[in-house]
Amino acid sequence: MTIRALIVDDSALIRKLLSDILSEDPNLRVVGTAVNGKDGLEKVGKLRPDVVLLDNVMPVLDGLNTLARIMRECPTPVVMVSALGEKAEEITLTAFEYGAVDVIQKPEGILSQSMPEMAEEICRKIREAAKANLENLECMRNQESEKPEINEKKGKIEEGRSRKQMASVRNVLAIGASTGGPRALEKLISSFPGDIPAAILVVQHMPAGFTSSLSKRLNSKTALKVKEAQEGDTVEEGTVLVAPGNYHMEIVQKTVNGRKKEIVHLSCGPKELGSRPSVNALFRSIAPVYGSRVISLVLTGMNCDGADGAEEVKKMGGKVIAEAQSSCVIYGMPKEIVRRKLADFVLPLDIMAEEIIKIIS
């Protein structure tokens, strides 16, 4: 089936570049373009596309307001088209709360060396977005009034943690997510208590740059410490490390002053199943290091990234949790876990944190 796409962007160059990219995929067809949000809204209603590619910063009607009206008036899977830069990235992350399915980085030019790879990723994300379950895109925003309490708890918990200085973590939660993941991660991670007896490692399929903004946003929503992982970061309880876009994140052991420590190693190795970071790469690396202390979680997303790694986790005595279809935006990655009979638990997102606490307590 051909997927019909509408491109909404105030840049004629971007409209042309995206149209050319989509025209190379026999499963995609551009049914129209729009020069701003107002024009885009009219064409969504008239053309009824399968997917909308939406610029985040536009005149007349900006991306966020356009998105909100699309989801209210004519619900359609929307992929945000975003430039890099803190402001643009923050707008894009807010767009996930408004109902966006995914994000692609704005192509810089047809002569760019990375253009073929970027074009492949853009087409793949559009194909995935067309399969999104829009009923699971309900708003997951926390109330602003909760922030002061979260920050106060975080300070107290970090003080206690620095005094303890445990030799190794008691549990490791390794989370893999793709399409629909940013919103799922916010809901899940904000539900964990700040004194959770576990370190948390996250791989979210996202372009380079956006994972830094995602980490900052998650950090503001939870009593846990959340940061984008850097080479050499130590794995610690109560800390969430998010794999940076375009880098595989692996955990390795290193001896420092006679003590073994688990630290982050980042690599630009080949993409796995079209993705870097790869969920499989993270899961494979932690399985022999932590063994039965691992709980790997596979959340919403297309394809099967995470399944091979989950097999390694199981072999070493760890547990595997798959998100239930009832809460997935895209039931692909968790479906593969269930198909291979790797899941110890299949849980909807709204009870996942509660059940994990029971498992590790």
Short structural description:
This protein has 361 residues and is an alpha/beta fold. It has helices at residues 12-23, 37-47, 63-73, 86-98, 115-129, 147-164, 181-189, 210-220, 279-290, 307-315, 333-339, 349-360; strands at 3-8, 28-34, 51-55, 78-82, 102-105, 172-177, 199-204, 225-228, 239-242, 248-256, 259-267, 294-298, 319-323, 345-347. It has a 7-stranded parallel β-sheet, with helices on both faces.
Question: Could you please describe the fold and organization of this structure?
Answer:
There is one protein chain. With 361 residues, the chain is an alpha/beta fold. The chain is 39% helix and 22% strand. It has a seven-stranded parallel sheet with strand order 8-9-7-6-12-13-14, with helices on both faces. Helix 4 (86-98) links the parallel strand 4 and strand 5 (102-105). Helix 3 runs parallel beside helix 4 (86-98) and helix 9 (279-290) packs parallel to helix 10. The radius of gyration is 20 Å and the shape is elongated. The N and C termini lie far apart (48 Å).
